[in-house]
Amino acid sequence: MLIPWCMLHLLLPLLLGVFAADDNCTATEVSLMQHREVHKAGSLGTLTLRTTNESLRAEHEAILDDALQAHKGCSKGKNCSFSEHSPMFPTPATIPVISYADAAKTQAAWQAPMKKTYDNGVRSPALGWNSWNQFNLDVNEAKVLSVARAMKSSGLLDSGFEYIIIDDGWGMPERDQDGQMQADPAKFPNGIKWLAEQLHGLGFKFGIYTSVGETTCGGGQPGIMGHIQIDAATFASWDVDYVKVDRCGWPGELFFAPGLDVGDLPEFARIVAGIDYPENGNWDCSGLMLFVLVRGCKYPASFYQVSGRVEGYQNLSAALNSTGRTMYLEICDWGEDDTLAFAPQIANSFRMLWDNFPQWHRVEEIYEYYAQVLAIPASTRPGAYAFADMLEGGVDGFLYNRDTFPASNLTRREAATEHAMWSMWSSPLILGYDVAKPSKVWVTEIMKNPALLKINQDPLGIAARLAVRRQKNFCPISDCYHTDVWVKPLAEGDVAVALVNVAGAYNQNNIFYTTESITVAWETLWLSPETNVSVYSATEQKDLGVMRGSVSMDVEPHGVTVLVLTPQKTTV
Ligand SMILES: *[C@@H]1O[C@H](CO)[C@@H](O)[C@H](O)[C@H]1NC(C)=O
Ligand SMILES: *[C@@H]1O[C@H](CO)[C@@H](O)[C@H](O)[C@H]1NC(C)=O
Ligand SMILES: *[C@@H]1O[C@H](CO)[C@@H](O)[C@H](O)[C@H]1NC(C)=O
Ligand SMILES: *[C@@H]1O[C@H](CO)[C@@H](O)[C@H](O)[C@H]1NC(C)=O
Ligand SMILES: *[C@@H]1O[C@H](CO)[C@@H](O)[C@H](O)[C@H]1NC(C)=O
Ligand SMILES: *[C@@H]1O[C@H](CO)[C@@H](O)[C@H](O)[C@H]1NC(C)=O
Ligand SMILES: *[C@@H]1O[C@H](CO)[C@@H](O)[C@H](O)[C@H]1NC(C)=O
């Protein structure tokens, strides 16, 4: 849920009023928010000063002051710019000394031992398609089958994209006389089992959506609460292969303003004033959006710590298992309820944060989350993967898929970067675009890149870590940007590195952004500079030859180059 800039003054007092009462929050939650908050509040500050409307400016300054004051050591009136309070980005020192030539040692060094007792036989991050990003609640049998046929004929199925998942909007608001969920006959006239049969016949696996609470997030369908056994049995009887369970409809969650989904609050708190810049650079209400400020310590723990929800997921996992049918389980708890502590043991993948949408700034926020939450590499292992959310490449956007917000799409370059980074993190790759549209062939080509899919599916299953961040001195409109190098150990001693020109939230063609030369020195990988390393570009799918000491690539704004490095064994 997003709040347009123009509407902010209506909502903000209400939000602050509600949250001012409770100053408690958990330590992990706070530190996570402070990273984000300071960075984004800095952006907001300078933006405020550029507003020509004095009345609007006063409002924005009040918002900013409040945000800055909430951050320790940053009092009212003080210039809390980005440079003054730079977020605590990981440095190369956080990458442990490891020998990339020894995959087992690499794995041990990067991964804290993670308990996973549940093992349903699925080991790799899922590859597939989900109906939500493009179709939202307007999903139906014809659309799903049309996408499935296109995925088959375009080679996506052969590339491994095997799951077709229908998200929210497939069912009736009421259960049937036997207490079973039922499909909406207007949308799925032949029923769910029939659809599963068709998809299986085409060679796909079939996934379905539900929620852990009383209702689903958007569609008003019943959730599994109180019906876990019967729902697991129903899914099995429909030949379901994948279950996505959302977090909505849990009783006791606070509701705080008409039109706002309280479930979105945890992510508000994380995003804190992430700003969506208009494509044309004009600060007007037609293009400018602002995420509402809700700071960590004013954010009641009751929002994200409802009792029993984790138990609901656990019960579902056990119930699916007891049907005897292998069903991939995706838990969509947005990183809440201490996801990393419970989900790897009961699920195949688990969402780490709130929804992606087809705007670069959102992709960048997810990217930052992965940069800053170092626990993610330790919580991704074969059979249990952190999920960065469905891909937005090729999705015809309307922001957060709501028609009240202006359209925007990821560019080709941004879509490729999204796909490459999700691959680097071993995140499931779940496509969102309408694959059947002829105008989307370019997206399909990006998604099928075999070198990146191999990195995504690497059997070690370790998420890439940020190893080097180079800050640009020059900060247009205060939104400083940086270039990054990410490192992902691969089986057999190879290492994938991603060289990213993050630039900023603007359109990639913003005049302030330039192509950057990004260098990976062998020292970053704890290799001797003398080592001969074979360099293969996964993004370009070509060999770049043997190099020594370092490799440098020119990377365009919002772009990425992924290289696979193979250190050659020294001949004795
Ligand atoms: C915050 O937590 C402390 C310790 O648990 C408690 O004493 C205090 O009343 C709480 N404050 C609020 C505003 O809930
Ligand atoms: C200035 O901003 C206020 C909101 O604070 C708005 O009501 C007013 O219409 C704006 N004036 C102009 C000229 O845009
Ligand atoms: C705040 O800091 C920025 C960046 O260092 C600087 O450009 C600006 O002049 C400062 N503003 C004030 C009021 O000190
Ligand atoms: C159920 O769980 C057990 C224990 O983890 C596992 O061995 C088995 O393969 C699972 N069965 C299914 C159908 O998921
Ligand atoms: C989970 O299952 C246990 C044991 O059947 C039951 O007592 C508990 O109420 C269930 N909780 C939820 C949230 O489903
Ligand atoms: C997004 O893509 C759709 C379809 O390709 C197009 O109609 C629309 O104009 C695009 N929107 C933007 C903001 O580029
Ligand atoms: C690297 O390759 C060069 C040229 O083939 C060779 O002379 C050199 O000994 C190699 N270095 C190492 C450390 O193997």
TrEMBL record:
Residues 483-565 form the Alpha galactosidase C-terminal domain. Its EC number is 3.2.1.22. InterPro entries: Aldolase_TIM, GH, Glyco_hydro_27, Glyco_hydro_27/36_CS, Glyco_hydro_b, Melibiase_C. It comes from the Eukaryota. GO terms for biological process: carbohydrate metabolic process. It is an enzyme of class 3 (hydrolase). It holds the Pfam family Melibiase_C. Keywords: Disulfide bond, Glycosidase, Hydrolase, Signal. Residues 1-20 form the signal peptide. It catalyses: Hydrolysis of terminal, non-reducing alpha-D-galactose residues in alpha-D-galactosides, including galactose oligosaccharides, galactomannans and galactolipids. One of its GO terms (molecular function) is alpha-galactosidase activity. Belongs to the glycosyl hydrolase 27 family. This is Alpha-galactosidase. It comes from Symbiodinium microadriaticum (Dinoflagellate).
